[in-house]
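Predict the structure of Glycine--tRNA ligase beta subunit.
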Amino acid sequence: MKGEFLLEIGTEEIPASFIPPATQSFCELFGRLLDNARISYSSQEWYATPRRLIFRALDVAPVQSSVEIEKTGPAKSAAFDEHGNPTKAAEGFARSQGVNVKDLLIVSTSKGEQVAVRKREEGRPTVEVLSEELPVLLEKISFPKTMRWMGLDVRFARPVHWIVALFEGQVIPFSFGNIQTGNSTRGHRFTNPGNFAVSGFDQFRDSLENHGVVIDPGRRRSEISRLVQELAASKGLKVFEEPDLLDEITYLVESPYPVMGEFSADFLELPASILITCMKKHQRYFSVQDDGGRITNRFIAVNNTPVQDPQMSLRGHQRVLKARLEDARFYFREDRKVPLMERLEALKGVVFHSKLGTAHEKVERFTELAMMLAKKLAPDKVDVVKHASLLCKCDLETGIVYEFPELQGIIGSYYAKMDGEPEEVSTAVREHYLPAFAGDSLPKGIVGSLVSIADRMDTIAGCFSVGLIPTGAADPYGLRRNALGIIQILMNLDRPVDLPWLIREAVKLIGDKRTRGLSEVEADVLEFFRTRFVNFHTSREFSLDVVEAVVRARFDDVVDARRRVEALNQWKMRPDFDSIMIGFKRVVNILKNVEPTECSPDLFQEESEKQLFSKFQEVAAQSAPLIDSGNYAKALELMTELKAPIDTLFDKVMVMVEDEQLRNNRLGLLRKIADFFIQIADFSFIGSTAK
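Done. Here is the predicted structure for Glycine--tRNA ligase beta subunit.
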């Protein structure tokens, strides 16, 4: 009868950011363990609080599956002499496998005939297997950092204080460090710290809740959100939406107890972004707004215990927050003594990278690049783009950004506005950092978009120019994220940009700091962008063969490539697509490793050649303006008209005839058609739609 597995690892408080990845890591490891051990199960669940990681598996088999195993030994020629008698090699192999020589088999393998033995390996009890494997597995759980304690020879995120390990209520015996498993768990550290026995998950969950612990993070998150919103609403206020803060607090408490406090209204002179950051990043407090969306001098803290004296608790929260806000106000007032643009010179003392110079040199480079872009895409904005570029990194030299690095760009935008800079400029200072992460919003204005592209391209070109190229999973300078950001911004702008030109100009601006050849760097960066483009689109339900077909044909304009991907992806959904591709691929494939040749209509002998050439000229003429305007969907529909004459040519005409002139002429005709196809995609990369 299948049963339930329950594991609880009780620890000192684990950092909130460690917990979700660790639970996923365990589930992957445990699933692999069961699969490799031939122990069936139906599903896994995980739960977690700051002090405990909990795992449950359902319908776990009580015994491993039995298996027939075959062990091969020496070659037949070495195991038996010419009379068929076993040699010492055969006898030794049989002895090592615990069988009689007469039980040996002869099997054919890739190495020839070998002696072998087949045995049935009976399954062991699941409890016995897990007793051996779980201690090893616990040390494999992935954490950003681990530690040792008490001189023990094990590592974990934090010291382990107890372990519950049960299979159908039976303890799975093993030790981890100085902890022996059992069936005893612990309640909330402060409100119900005692131990109590558990026998299964339902009783375990309910008993812990009775002892002040809500193990389900989803329930805790919902409860925190509800209580915080209700507390704010009781004062006629609303909480700022902070999903990431809500996620963090979920793993900071085992039961939530929110309280509302306030700080001096004098601090409201600070920008809302500074106030929110002080409360969120340093104190994990929710900021509160009025009905008009204006920040108030209230905050909500979520405690891990019920408060006996709310005022004393609030005084503690308010005292700590006041110190943070006073620091922020000091930096803010000091910052305002110097206009933002006057801080540009100070960037000469900030090293961007030892091989690429100072932040000031970087600003000079990408300002030049942004102006080049502006001349092509927004000629009336060149001066605005130049000014925004020079201004956008100046807040790196402010006290607020030194204290709160996450506010770079945001505080620069605020200071620019206070200095009287145009709205377009102050907005660009903030937007040029977008997108900051996967799924983040993109710059809305053309100025911020161009500055962002130039800044990111300078980083990529600079790093590639001095050999700082991402390898494997390592990308310390965020080049993949920067390339993806450029691709998304270009697609959002929906304007043509010559990508090889942009890369070339960026690399040239690196100047004498470049340690690699210009053409080599350009080629590497273009391929880097091509890979990012493919990965981005295949992650968004475009098939790999379609995207590869497009970028292998040509990849010089991100917007144009995107249009071709969309058109080809839609065209591939035609019910007759596979039959169309047969002839199209034959055109492409027959030309592989063939030198280009010309085509003369005067040399056509067969009617099918003449018909194909005539139809090709008609379709090419009609498609030319469509391709020029980016209407690839309509161009592909016209290309479909070539299917019948192409199929007829291959059915009735031998292309690779012995007559060299005739053969080259026919190949020349097919070359014209292939060159026509390649304006949209390399069809040789397209796969079948057949299931």
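Residues 67-121 form one domain.
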